[in-house]
Write a structure and sequence with these properties.
Number of helices: 5
Order of helices and strands: EHEEHEEHHEEH
Strand content: 25-35%
Shape: globular
Radius of gyration: 16 Å
Helix content: 25-40%
Mean pLDDT: 91
Structural class: alpha+beta
Bound molecules: adenosine-5'-triphosphate, magnesium ion
Low-confidence stretches: none
Distance between the termini: 26 Å
Largest sheet: 5 strands, mixed
Strand order of the largest sheet: 2-4-5-7-6
Oligomer: single chain
Length: 158
């Protein structure tokens, strides 16, 4: 299904912004032009739901979450950055493995199974994309993924 990812992403962010109970500010830096990608919307909703829930779960009181979407060499890159506890460098790859959770004691009280990002990885890869994380301990985390994107004919004419 062809979906304008700007609108699709905005609606998911809206839903979280309305429902959130934490004192966390949302900032959006999305493309200002409709950008169509061929995706399974249900599956990508699940991907974004997990990434955004994680960002909220690990955000401090008064923190900010930044939502970005940029275009890069026939890909769109979507990212969610938080100002939370962060993830130690050695664990950055492992968070995409099934049942992996950083620091069992820390995460026990926050709930979850450790499956969210493993499922997200599977779904992003099924769309021909990649998923990765960058983090600075104590400063925050950015989870990003790419999706192949075809330039519209309109762009070719300009
Ligand atoms: P589930 O998503 O199944 O409810 P979960 O959130 O613990 O459980 P994942 O979403 O797969 O599992 O994340 C794996 C682990 O990666 C988390 O337990 C947490 O330790 C770490 N993690 C993920 N996102 C963040 C983040 N934004 N900041 C800090 N740690 C994170
Ligand atoms: Mg999760």
């Amino acid at each position: 299904e062809w979906v304008d990812f700007v609108q699709f992403y905005s609606r998911i962010i809206d839903r979280f912004e309305l429902a959130k109970e934490q004192n966390v500010r949302f900032e959006r830096k999305l493309l200002d032009q409709a950008t169509f990608v061929e995706i399974d919307p249900d599956k990508l909703t699940q991907v974004l739901d997990n990434i955004i829930s994680n960002a909220l779960k690990y955000s401090p009181e008064g923190g900010k979450i930044t939502f970005k979407m940029v275009e890069e060499e026939e890909m769109i890159i979507i990212s969610v950055s938080d100002e939370g506890v962060g993830i130690p460098k050695d664990n950055l790859e492992k968070i995409f493995e099934r049942f992996y959770r950083v620091d069992k004691a820390r995460t026990r009280k926050l709930g979850g199974t450790g499956l969210g990002l493993a499922i997200a990885k599977e779904m992003v890869e099924a769309h021909g994309g990649k998923i990765w994380a960058r983090s600075v301990e104590g400063k925050g985390t950015t989870v990003s993924f790419s999706l192949p994107y075809l330039q519209t004919e309109e762009d070719d004419w300009s």
